[in-house]
Amino acid sequence: MENLERYINDDELSDADVLIKMAVIHYQFESIHPFYDGNGRTGRILNILYLVLKDLLILLILYLSRYIIQNKTQYYKFLQGVRDKQDWESWILFILIGVEGTFIQTIDMIQSIKQVMMDYKHRVRSSCKFYSQDLINNLFYHSYTKIEFIEKDLRVGRLTAVKYLEELRRLGFLKKQKWGRSNDYINLGLYKILVRREWSRIINI
């Protein structure tokens, strides 16, 4: 583990590209298997943190875990290939393909969110007298909002916050979902982008 820490932090040990080093680090961590449980999750998080450390990422927006989980059979096959045959090439290519595909998907998602945000901005502005940029920011900070969030961000009273949210629900921007005693207002456009259509049935959207 000490050698892995040095490899992560000392760039003089290898002049390989950062993405290749990330693949090597991930393999080494999974092979060391330092914890009783949670090594897979930790290893996937380590990928992202390493890219942040090396200034390839500013925000934690590269969700490589989905690629690994969806290709779990190949993932373990290539890991074992390094152990048995020192087949680093197949393992590194597997990771690089995943990084490329994930970046493409992430960029597509960001562009889709920007489009939906602009659509909401124009439609809310033309439909609601209470439109403000703070309101739009609130709606897109999470995939849902609450009465309390509106009160805080827009600095309005509870009754006013309820009025705003109910009007947005009536116009089709939000869906009201009750969880126990709390009401969440789900941003339909953003939610569908984040979880895709197959998951929308969970809340009957």
The CATH superfamily of the largest domain is known as Fido-like domain
Radius of gyration: 22 Å
Which band does the percent of strand residues land in?
5-15%
Based on secondary structure, the structural category is mainly alpha
Number of E strands: 3
Morphology call: elongated
Percent helix range = 55-70%
Mean pLDDT equals 90
Distance N to C terminus = 47 Å
Strands in their spatial order, largest beta sheet: 1-3-2
CATH structural class of the largest domain: Mainly Alpha
Sheet with the most strands, sense and barrel status: 3 strands, antiparallel
CATH topology of the largest domain: Fic-like fold
SS summary, helix count: 10
Number of domains: 2
- What low-confidence regions span 5 or more consecutive residues with pLDDT below 50? 197-205
Provide the CATH architecture of the largest domain.
Orthogonal Bundle
What's the order of the H and E elements?
HHHHHHHEHHEEH
Active site: 33
Binding site for ATP: 37-44, 75-76
Protein name: Toxin-antitoxin system, toxin component, Fic domain protein
Keywords: ATP-binding, Membrane, Nucleotide-binding, Transmembrane, Transmembrane helix
